[in-house]
Amino acid sequence: MPFYCFRAVLLPLTLVALSFSVFGEPIPPKLDALYRQAVTADTVPGISVAVADANGVQWAQGYGFADVENRLPMRAEDKLRIGSVAKVMTAAGLMRLYQAGKINLDKPVTDYVTAWPNDKPVITLRQLASHTAGVRHYKEGANEFLLNEHFPSVSASLALFKDDPLLFVPGTAFSYSTLGWTLISAAMERADGKRNFQQIMQDEVFTPLRLNDTAFDEQSQIIPNRVRPYSVRDGKLINSPQTDHSYKWAGGGIIASAADVSRFAVAQIDGHYLKPKVSKLMLTKARLNDGKPVNVGIGWFIGFDDYRQRKQYKNDTQALALMDAMPHAVMHSGGSMGGITMTILCTEHHRAVTVVKNVDGDNSADVFLLALQTLSYYHQREHMATRRPM
Asked: Going residue by residue through the chain (390 aa), what tens digit of pLDDT does each one get?
């Protein structure tokens, strides 16, 4: 398995696409050109991409810069903010507790979290994990997304939203919520009884799957290979404002390499890490009280229906064709201060792709389209290989 690593300094900005780190197979020329082009924009400091299948990482590479000021090239092992892709990692930890018989997805959350008000309508972990519980997302006008306050524990962070009214009767509608996953993490701690959320994730997710390039985004700690986050404001690249993610470890507080995320995704369906029936439960669409399905299972978005309706894709025949060719895909995106992520897992081919850029506010490099194109390349290559005469 070849491994190349180049980390130079004082490179001119025009050479941004020439610095890289790659492991797995030799660089696919078609994809190499695609990603080199993606980092030519002044508003894209760097991109990390990785493809994995049942045999491990097929290809992982960094493009552009992990640190623009010091001209440090992006490497395949660098850790970037993956935003809400943390939710599917938390879902894995949740399902490991479920698999071990430690937690019930359909019990009232108050059975696990005594700090959650009893005067609210009953909500369950299944509803929280499918965004049908009615817990709010970031409060508009409160700049919660930019929060830079450290919370010493998961239970302490519940104070941000536990007294706010639910948006609707649980199970009657869908509304995306990062804070709902903070409540899930509190329930996981109480159900386990011995470990805090971070230790549960280390023991149940990071360690067994050998996610050595994955960590919680602790601001005060020295974390090797942590990428510098950037933002685009008024068309210009700036250093991202300092933010503290301790209030949302479960929903958006993890940094990881693209390779770790893709390997993690494939492991969800390998039949060993999770039992097949548990994996199937996680990747099956949840239903509202009236039986109507929503496009989320336990953490994972099932299919591309939400993306088909987005303005930038609904008339994009190429994008729609790529989505049509992957009817058995599940996915999750991630948006954070200084990072945008897309992870797609094709359950038919047992193959996953993760694309992360260390910038928010940029519209020139579409990580969703890049991920679709990358996954399609590997699917087509596999198809051609199976058609070759013996």
From this structure: 333 333 333 333 333 433 345 666 778 899 999 999 999 999 999 999 999 999 999 999 999 999 999 999 999 999 999 999 999 999 999 999 999 999 999 999 999 999 999 999 999 999 999 999 999 999 977 789 999 999 999 999 999 999 999 999 999 999 999 999 999 999 999 999 999 999 999 999 999 999 999 999 999 999 999 999 999 999 999 999 999 999 999 999 999 999 999 999 999 999 999 999 999 999 999 999 999 999 999 999 999 999 999 999 999 999 999 999 999 999 999 999 999 999 999 999 999 999 999 999 999 999 999 999 999 999 998 777 766 555
Q: What does the radius of gyration of the chain's CA atoms come to, in whole angstroms?
A: 20
Strands 72-73 and 20-24: unpaired
Burial, 244: exposed, middle or buried (Cβ in 10 Å; 0-12, 13-18, 19+)? middle
Give the closest residue to 282 by CA, choosing from 86, 129, 134: 129
Q: Name the residue with tokens 């995320």.
A: 261
Distance (Å, whole) CA 344 – CA 332: 7
Q: What is the DSSP letter of 160?
A: G
Q: Which residues contact 129 (CB under 8 A, 6 or more apart)?
A: 91, 94, 105, 180, 181, 184, 286, 296, 297, 298, 299
